[in-house]
Structures are given as structure tokens and as C-alpha cells.
Automatic annotation (TrEMBL):
Keywords associated with the record: DNA-binding, Transcription, Transcription regulation
Pfam families in UniProt: GntR, UTRA
CDD domains to which the protein is assigned, alphabetical: WHTH_GntR (cd07377)
SUPFAM superfamilies recorded: Chorismate lyase-like, Winged helix' DNA-binding domain
Descriptive protein name: GntR family transcriptional regulator
Ranges where the HTH gntR-type domain occurs: 12-79
Length: 259
């Protein structure tokens, strides 16, 4: 019989239930970083076979919640960890986090139309003329849709992204629509056929400003991970520019290089 902590009739695989329980305990500090999670202890606790235990630990390791010490066992990584692998579909971070049971929220804290700065004009190649958008296209003189979000996991803020988008005329989503769908790119693909092809990233370490510190619930000057992303639609057309800061203790970004 499985442990009372598990619900075999819920339809959720046992390994997923075990993984979610351990992840919550790691995030809230219940699981101490010096105490190994041994298969023997977990077998005794959850009263299941070895297969779901090993699967849960394997996925927790892949997502950055635990690490293995040779000959000593598996240990928790303190804090709530968000591991963003390289193969997450562009614009689909919210869905990725939700699929892993991390209870993400993506609150729109700013939504406006803005004139492009010189830097944005260059990055988005606005002076090259209209882009090939279904349902209408922008000219160099059109404004950009500026969206600011606060992304949280299990109620803990982890990132504050701002994105500037070149969008078709008539695309004017509300904050509620953006929060419901998790990404403006989801709506653009559904309503206007704009599909992202690839993105380019610049990543560096920085210190939290007063505004960033307040949003992410950290002290001013705390280390943050900054990522700027230029999104390209099919055909190499620049569709959007995102600037985001992330809590450095909570967010891990994985890159893959190929020959």
C-alpha cells in the first residue's frame, strides 16, 4: 500500500506525486541541504516500488532541485529552482512551468503603446519598412506594444520581463487576455499566424536596482541574472525584444552549442 501522502486513484503518476512533494519540501526549506535523499529512506516513506522513486529523483536532478555526490547520495539544492532547458518552445515558458507542477503565475504589471527608442529601432530593424505580418503590418513610424510582467513560481517572484513587440494593426490584447494565455506570442500565432522561428540571447550578471529589488523581493544590490532576447519570426524578421531580470538563486538557464 502506498503512503498516505500519495493518492493512487488521482490519475497522477506516483513518480510525479513523489516529485512534487519533494520539490515543495526543497523549496520551502523542509528538506535540509545536508540531509541526503536516499532511495532506502524514500522507499520506506512512500511505500512504493523503486521505479517511481528513481524516476522522481532523476527528474528533480534534471530540473536542478537535487544533485548527486559520488558515493554519498542525492542532496537537495536549497531554494525554489527554475531550470529552463534549451528546448523549451519560444514564448512557452509559462506552459513549461505549469506542466511541471510549479504553479506559475504571470501577472501583467504594465501594458502600453510606446514610441521605439533608437536602440529598439535598430534591434527590431524598424527602418527597413513593414514586416510580413498577416492581417496588416507595421511601418517604421508605428508604436510598439510594451508589456511588463512579474512571473512567480509557487507564489515566489522569480523574474521581471519587459517585451516590446511589432504587431499587426488591430492586435490590442487586454491584460486579462495576456495573463490567461501566458504569452502574447500565443495570441499572435492563433489570431495572426505569426510563428516564432528562433531567438538570440545575451546573458550577464547584474545587481538589483530599487525597482527590481521591490518586484523580486530581494535586497537592493542583490545578484540577478539579466537576459536580453531578440525574437525572430519565420524568414528572419525581428518580431520582438525582451529584457528580463531573474532571481539568481532561483533561475537556471541552459544553453546548447552544436558543431
Amino acid at each position: 500500500m502506498a503512503s498516505a501522502e500519495l493518492n493512487p486513484s488521482s490519475g497522477v503518476p506516483l513518480y510525479r506525486q513523489i516529485k512534487d512533494i519533494l520539490r515543495r519540501e526543497i523549496a520551502d526549506g523542509t528538506a535540509g541541504p545536508e540531509t541526503p535523499m536516499t532511495e532506502a529512506l524514500l522507499l520506506e516513506r512512500f511505500e512504493v516500488s523503486l521505479a517511481p522513486i528513481r524516476q522522481a529523483l532523476r527528474e528533480l536532478a534534471t530540473e536542478g532541485y537535487v544533485y548527486r555526490k559520488q558515493g554519498k547520495g542525492t542532496f537537495p539544492v536549497p531554494g525554489s529552482r527554475v531550470h529552463r532547458p534549451a528546448d523549451v518552445r519560444l514564448g512557452a515558458l509559462h506552459d513549461y512551468l505549469a506542466d511541471r507542477g510549479l504553479n506559475p503565475t504571470s501577472n501583467v504589471i504594465g501594458l502600453e503603446w510606446t514610441e521605439p527608442t533608437d536602440r529598439l529601432r535598430t534591434a527590431l530593424n524598424l527602418d527597413s519598412g513593414p514586416g510580413p505580418l498577416a492581417g496588416g503590418s507595421l511601418t517604421a513610424d508605428d508604436r510598439l506594444l510594451h508589456i511588463t510582467r512579474l512571473i512567480s513560481v509557487d507564489g515566489r517572484p522569480i523574474a521581471r520581463p519587459e517585451v516590446h513587440l511589432r504587431v499587426p494593426r488591430g492586435f490590442d490584447p487586454t491584460a486579462a487576455e495576456l495573463e490567461e494565455h501566458g504569452s502574447a506570442f500565443t495570441l499572435l500565432e492563433r489570431d495572426h499566424g505569426l510563428v516564432l522561428d528562433h531567438a538570440e540571447h545575451d546573458v550577464w550578471a547584474t545587481e538589483a536596482t530599487a525597482l527590481q529589488a521591490e518586484a523580486l523581493a530581494v535586497a537592493v544590490g542583490s545578484p540577478l541574472l539579466a537576459i536580453e532576447t531578440l525574437f525572430f519570426a519565420a524568414g528572419g524578421w525581428p518580431a520582438g525584444f525582451r529584457s528580463a531580470v531573474h532571481r539568481a538563486d532561483d533561475f537556471k538557464y541552459r544553453f546548447v552549442e552544436r558543431r
